[in-house]
Amino acid sequence: MCAKWRLKLNTTKTKIIHFRNKKTPVTNEEFLFGELKLEIVKIYKYLGIIFDEHLTFEECAKTLSKAAGRKLGHLFVINRKLEGIGYNTFTKLYESRVDPVAFYAATVWGTKNFKFHETIQNRAIRMFLGVSKYTTNLAIQGDMGWPSTSNKMKTCVCRFWNRLIKLPTSRLTKQIFLNDLKVRKCTWSSQALKILKTLYGEDTTLNDFMEGINLQQVKTKLNELDEENWKREIVKFPKLRTYRLFKTKFGKENYTQQFLSKNRRSLIAQMRTGTSNLRIETGRYERQRNQNGQLEILPAEKRLCKICESIEKVEDEYHFIFECEKYRSARAILAFNIEKLGKKYEKSTDLLGELLTEKILLKIMADYIDYAMEMRKTIEKKGGEPLPP
Questions:
Q1: Overall average pLDDT of the 295-311 stretch
Q2: Which of 66, 123, 220, 298 has its C-alpha lying 20 to 30 A from 80's C-alpha?
Q3: In the prediction, which pLDDT does 183 show?
């Protein structure tokens, strides 16, 4: 046919790929086009999707995450030029510029579980909150309240399931889907059905989903699973000792939506997530010798405050805000502003939680942290104490 119509084959794009299980060896057969032997390859890119010989889609997900990372870089530039943007604007930009690239064709490969995209999303959150790479992922995810990348991929799969269900049986795509359902082993349909059973219960059957599924209900159930996983994992991190005192629900926090400068938002986020420049955090990188002469991490109870030179007080968030004598002038301003808002100033973990959570208190808390941190730097350098403004 090609000779008849004087068509030439583009051999650089025409390849053979043998899809198979990992235990099955690659075929020994030769594939010819006329006298030309076609190359057998391990991966092949078609319409932007990278297919590998075992259909793991790992290379595809990795490539898409790199492209999404470049798009995220553009978002960083926008944020820098505008000197910071609000939560809703940042979320909208991320969802419209980065997610479409990261989850391109996720309807096909979204049944798999990849961490590449989660890394990109965590980078975006860290940039917005102004925290370092050492901040626990669970803390920043919990404060931002974005759906997990796994959640987004599964939503894409469920949306495509609905689309396939609604197709007329005359369509080739629908016929392939129905045949795929009959195989029920290591297929896209079997993986999609597994996701649905996770959401709706193992006692459900295929017939329960053949009329379509409520996508909004799916999103709700996926969010509930995200929150359950977040609550289960958050107790495993000692760094989040203060965070757990006031953060009990997964979801966006007031300070992320409050009109705060990038610096003030960063100060609040660091204080909440346990990554401020306090010795309870920096002390984890200090070493001491034990009785056997071996080096070990400095225990939390020995990370004492060097600013007030206390012999018994650990420099944690509570000590920094309520106890350290070197910040008494800044603390007096904090107490005055709290009482000015009609609240009682009493040193307690409850008040600590309110200062880092409640909308009306966030600005004065950010002011205190900013001023106290400047005092701390001066004390560390000169050993003096600046006068209050």
A1: 84
A2: 66
A3: 80
Tell me, rounded to whole angstroms, the distance of Cα 195 from its chain centroid: 21
Residue of 9, 20, 275 whose CA lies nearest to 132: 275
Q: Residue 385 pLDDT > 70, yes or no?
A: no
The residue among 313 and 2 whose pLDDT is bigger is 313
Q: Pinpoint the alpha helices (H) of the chain.
A: 58-81, 87-97, 99-102, 106-109, 116-129, 137-144, 149-166, 172-183, 188-200, 215-234, 243-246, 254-257, 262-273, 279-282, 317-318, 328-340, 349-355, 359-382
Instruction: Give me the pLDDT at residue 388, please.
Output: 44
The whole-angstrom separation of Cα 277 and Cα 131 is 12
Q: What is the pTM of this model?
A: 0.88
Residue 345 CA to its chain's centroid (Å): 36
Q: What would the two tokens of residue 371 be?
A: 């001023």
CB 385 within 8 A of CB 280: no
Q: Tokens at residue 288, please?
A: 């001491």
Of 360, 359, 385, 362, residue with least CA distance to 372: 385
Quick one: which of 106, 117, 116 has its CA closest to 147?
117
Q: 146, 153, 121, 122: which is closest to 136 by C-alpha?
A: 122
| Dihedral sign, Cα of residue 337, residue 338, residue 340, residue 346 | negative
Percentage of the residues of the chain whose pLDDT score is greater than 70: 96
Q: Which amino acid is at 221?
A: K
Q: Which residues, in sequence order, are CB contacts of 156 under 8 Å at separation 6+?
A: 103, 106, 107, 110
pLDDT tens digits, 15-55: 999 999 889 999 999 998 877 888 999 999 998 899 999 99
Pairing of strands 287-289, 295-297: antiparallel
Distance separating alpha carbons of residues 108 and 209, to the nearest angstrom: 19
Give yes or no for a contact between 324 and 315, defined as CB atoms under 8 angstroms apart. yes
What are the C-alpha distances in Å from 258 to residues 23, 217, 218, 358?
Answer: 55, 30, 30, 10
Cβ atoms of 52 and 19 within 8 Å: the answer is no
DSSP label of 302: G
Query: Is the Cβ–Cβ distance between 81 and 119 less than 8 Å?
Result: no
Question: What's the CA gap between 45 and 360, in Å, rounded?
Answer: 53
